[in-house]
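go over whats below:
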Amino acid sequence: MSGNKASRQKPCHHCKSRPASAPAGTSTIHYEKFWLYRHCSSLQQSDRQAQKAGQLFSGLLAMNVVFLGSAFLSSMIFNNVAITLADVWILLSILKVLCVCWIFYYLLGTRRQPHAVLYQDSHAGAIWIRGSVLLFGSFSVLLNVFHIGYSAVVIQCKSTLEILFPSIEILFICAQAYFLWNHSKDCIQVQHNFTRCGLMLTIATNLLLWLLAVTNDTLHTEIEGQLRQVEQRFAGNETALCPCPNTTICEVFQKGYILLYPFNTEFCLVCCSMLYVMWKNVGRRISHHHVPHVKSKFKFQGVVFGPLLGTIAVIIGVCVFMIYQVQATSSGPNHQVLVMYYSYYIVLLPLMSVGAVIGTVIHALEKRELDTVKNPTRSLDVVLFMAAALGQICMSYFSIVAIVATKPIKLLHSLILSHSVLLIFQNITQNVFIIDGLHRQPLMSPNKEEETKEDQIHEGHDQRRVSVLELGQEIRKVSLSYIHSYSHLNWKRRALREISFFLVLCNIILWIMPTFGAHPVFENGLEKEFYGYSTWFTIVNFGLPLSVFYRMHSVGGLLEVYVTA
């Protein structure tokens, strides 16, 4: 009787049925609703609207935090009496402590709930970007250690807070690096809104740390003052207001801090990109048909000229970099070294541009189908390529204006002008090539093609009762069709692989040189004299980390283009 009552019971129209593609056990999940969803009738239509409301609220939270921090930074720059650097550090320390608390809560609370992580985004958290988080995070920790050591040596004229703040940042860096290394692929299915707010708060904190690193030249100016005081001490003029008791230790901390400074800004940018992907994946349910059937693997086959030319470019670049660094650390880069440095770029950049243009033309000739599946990681990659390229393009245009205004009559000035123009063109052509390649569907090998076709035939075997003979004929037809198409596409695929591999090696050397200390844009003196020290310092610290991030991100994008070709 009870069974008949149950059978006559009307279904609940407010209950959401489990998606057909969801795994077993998800029928007990009740996806939470945003508070606006519960109280506003206009939003009571679908979970999609609740997701949009949650994203809007967390985005507004991040926007307000960024605006508040930007107001503090601007006040520090334009009115250093009312708002000091210590006030900015206090605000950032509070934000970092809140972020660390949320990360611990996510690891120990949210993620351990039932059905918390049913799906993982296979495109998110690639090994190269997680490795860069560990690399830049390690160097950022070392940077703060140097900062603590420098403050401890001159503690007589420093506040103890200048030791506390870097210590909090070390905790923040370690917690964030662990979190992103292990959980960057998560598509969290519980506590949507709290997770979104935590992720956005962490993104806003990283953006403020990046803005502080870009605009704050206090320690750099102080280090230069210390170095001048050391020179005056050797000359017999004891005028140091904050003398360093041990000159050798001070120089180690100073040089280490300046060398590692760009890594901290890189760490903030990489973390922002990974956290944004996690934020987009909150509450995301991935269907089975979105999962690719064939995973392309990196194989070093059929490429000769790309690795050869790229290796030559890397070897020459390492030699130029070592000569430049030796001169820069001894007596400063002289005229001949700067000419050699810019000449290397002027030879390499046109080759990279020509390769990217040829690759784009081959993509057009291939007529491969576009991959239209929704992919937050790829969408973010496109935005990052366009945004990160703006850093180098911005510096190049500032250099062009400075050189043209001063009338380039010297050889070095002409080289800097050519370098800036070629760099703009190379960034644009490479972006077009990579973005076009990322949106192409990968080609399958013959074995994978046969396996896929065989699986499709086996799926319908029970319905159509396909005989073994018919199965063999189908596989033979697919093999002959693939061999025919491969003979026509072989040279195109090989050319794409050669170009991609060459560009990978070139971007690696162009990432190494500015990352580990070669900064002629600041050391040639032309732009610094034209715009002033503080202005050009801000421009370089805005553009240089983006440029380094662009080269590192390009390596990952080009490797994906290489694999899919």
Summary: Residues 303-442+486-564 form one domain. The two ends are 64 Å apart (CA to CA). The longest strand covers residues 117-120. The chain has two domains: 44-286, 303-442+486-564.
